[in-house]
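User: C-alpha cells for this one?
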Amino acid sequence: MAAAIAEATGAPAGDLAAAGLAHFALEAAEVASTWEDPASAFHELFDLLDNGWGR
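Assistant:
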C-alpha cells in the first residue's frame, strides 16, 4: 500500500509519509471494524488527518 500511495502522489519509493499513511489506513480499518458503525468510524478516523486533534 505504501508503494501505491507513493506512486499516486509522485513521492519517491520508500517515502516515510507514504509508509505512515499506509500504516494508518490499515490500522484505521482494523479499529473501525470493531465499532457499531464501521463506515462512520473509518470516516471519523480519517477526519483526524484532515483536521487534526481537538477541532
